[in-house]
Amino acid sequence: MDTVRFFGLAAFLLAAVFFSMKWFLTVTPLQADARLPTFRQVDPDSLSRQLMSSSISDDDPIRDRLRHAVLDEAKLLDHDPCSRMLKADYIAAVNAYARAWISIVPCLGTRTCSSSDSAKLDRAAQAFGSPLDLRLREAMQRAHRKTGFKLGDFPNDDAPLVAELAADGAINPLAIHAVSSGPVNAGSGPHPSFDDVRARLGESDSSQDCTTQ
User: Fold this and answer.
1) Domain boundaries along the sequence of the chain
2) Over pLDDT 70: what percentage of the chain?
3) pTM of the full predicted structure?
């Protein structure tokens, strides 16, 4: 009887060891845990990655609304640069964005900033220096290269700043005045045409001709 018990216990122990080792050595896939972050390889040069990086802002809701308004209108104008309605909507969006700058640094509107305004300039540069602001300026520059904006399209109080952001000196009344004035003792003569002023400012006329529409 003891022998039977011995062999029975030995068989049970062998079976237990066998199934324990089988369970221990079996590889089972890990289950995802929602609490843990997931990682995947990202190409830093991919278009989606670049777009995501250039969309970072300071998360200020008012400034973000102004930024996206300019980006949206610039994109629409890029598809139809001769549309008067889209051009007017773009100008309105850009004016609101530029005046947000000027609300921080009023001297930007008249280009009369001095060393005493350095703190305000730093504040404005920080408020409007996000990657999304840089992408906005690139969009403005594309729009101004493709669409024919002229002096007077933007109000004089923000035209100098818009001209700088869009790299479009032809809409800057201060630059136009400086070029057309000439030396103090210069004799009176015919004023240069708008095209002459553009040429002197180094602005290439790459805008689309919309006069036939």
Assistant:
1) 47-181+194-200
2) 56
3) 0.64
